[in-house]
Amino acid sequence: MTDAVLPGFRSLDLASDAAKARIRARYRSEARFRFYGLFAVGLTAAFVLIVLADILIRGLPAFTQHWLQLEVMVDPTEIDPKGTRNPADLRGGDYQLLVRNALRAQFPEVADRAGRRALDSLLSSASADALRDRVVADPALIGRTIKLPLLMSDQADLYYKGFGTRIDQRPGRGALTPSGTSGEIVLTGSSNDFAPYLNATKQALSERARNLRREAGRLRAIVGQLEARRSSAGEAERAGLTGNIETLTQRIKDLDGDAAALQARFDAVSGEETLDDRLPSQLVAINGGLVKLTRIGSSSATGTVLLPLQSAAEAPGGTWQSVTYLTPEGSRRVTDREVAWLERLKENGQATRTFNWAFFTSGDSREPELAGIRGALVGSALTLLVTLVLCLPVGIAAAIYLEEFAPKNRLTELIEVNINNLAAVPSIVFGLLGLAMFLNFFGLPRSAPLVGGLVLALLVLPTIIIAGRAALKAVPPSIKEAALGVGASHQQAIFHHVLPLAMPGIMTGTIIGMAHALGETAPLLMIGMVAFIVEPARSITDAATVLPVQIYLWSDLPEIAFQAKTAAAIIVLLVFLFVMNGAAIYLRKRFERRW
Q1: Nearest 5 degrees, angle CA 213-CA 216-CA 220?
Q2: pTM for the full model?
Q3: What residue numbers bound the domain in which 131 lies?
Q4: What torsion do the CA atoms of 340, 342, 343, 345 make, to the nearest 10 degrees?
Q5: 413 to 284, 402, 470: CA distances (angstroms)
Q6: Cα Rg for the chain, rounded, in angstroms?
Q7: Please, are residues 303 and 290 in contact by the beta-carbon 8 Å criterion?
Q8: How many folded domains does the chain comprise?
């Protein structure tokens, strides 16, 4: 009787090979699905980590800054020629000349105008501000020599941070004799110490010749295409094509000529070579000085002294070094001469690296080493304050009315649908609305936190209303019913019992909405918050900028130092966003109740 099968029912096949195969296929399908899910999560995490790592690598250098420790003579003839020691007169002194003279004293051999100008460029235009403040605060410093840190320029700062060139140093084997201690000198060696660098130079010439020939071949292909088009083109187009063909043909001739000249220099195996700014710079550190080579042979070289030699005596093998700046001088903004000065200051321990507090305490500037985010932080705080003051009470009141008091009719449904749709409207639309209404119609001040806060309040309001209604809905109906049962009015039941229980969810939605507003750029650009702001705003009607807009402005600047500033500002913005989202998660976990 146990083996009988009821009519209309099919027995389950669990033991046959076909059934086992189906089970195995199902398990394989589930395993594949889990693998796909884990792969998707892992891929997403990898992309996030790559982006964050890239931002950190680019932005961390901006949080430090290099200073130059120098002894500065406070010359009274330059800052207080009348001898009054009046603070107003002292502030008008030429302190920049004093700090430049202090730096020039480190390299007395620099006497030419171009060299002094390049030496002065190692210091920031605001390097004398600290000296001015100290002298004005203590006029007794006039006539004395004081040691203080001087802010370095962005190019010098970038070089010390590794954005200049890598330096390769190798000890010399044979003896080397210089013909002098300054100017243009000849270095004569007892062995073929320069032969490896001569061969490397010739290989670089051969590579340049190949690149030129490759470029000429590419242009020939373009000329062939243009000639094919010219044969079937009209009269007007044919004239333009002919001009382009002639220009490209002349360019091809020039490339072929340059490539042939470079190849001829490469073929002359035993000849000397002239070094230009498109080749790695070859230098020799000898007798306490530094010589930049301009012409190189196997056993001798000609060069220009960058740092004066202490003597012209013969340097035995192992006492001098061959120094190579691997990045050609024509491909970097810091010249060989400036690199030599910076390296000497570094060897003397005068260049120090400290945390860049000015990045947080200074406003925007055209000089990268002086630019900071204080104005953007203040503008963001004022804008978010206006946004919060406007959208929080309005959003909560709208959520309470729609969820608890509004009649359920078509008008209410239409309002609810429009609120949900507004939450998905692109932010640029709110910017256009703010431009048309707040600026053009009401005439409010452009680029002010007041207008920015109004626009962002419109942007965030639907999010707060939706989150508020969801939080009110999550409160069990029994809470309100119990309050009504003991005699409370509808309003008392909502405001005394339901709203306090829903407040954690409402605050979570508000914080998320404010974090969304903090990262918005497009609507603020539309209302003109792209002004160059140096001083932070003092009220909600002053001109200001916000952190996302500051990032946008810096990202469009050509200076390399602003790339690090941009990434550093992004890091600060991400920290704020992480803190705000973390606060939302904490509030939800801390005050959320499960019913």
Answers
A1: 140
A2: 0.83
A3: 65-163
A4: 120
A5: 83, 10, 16
A6: 36
A7: no
A8: 4
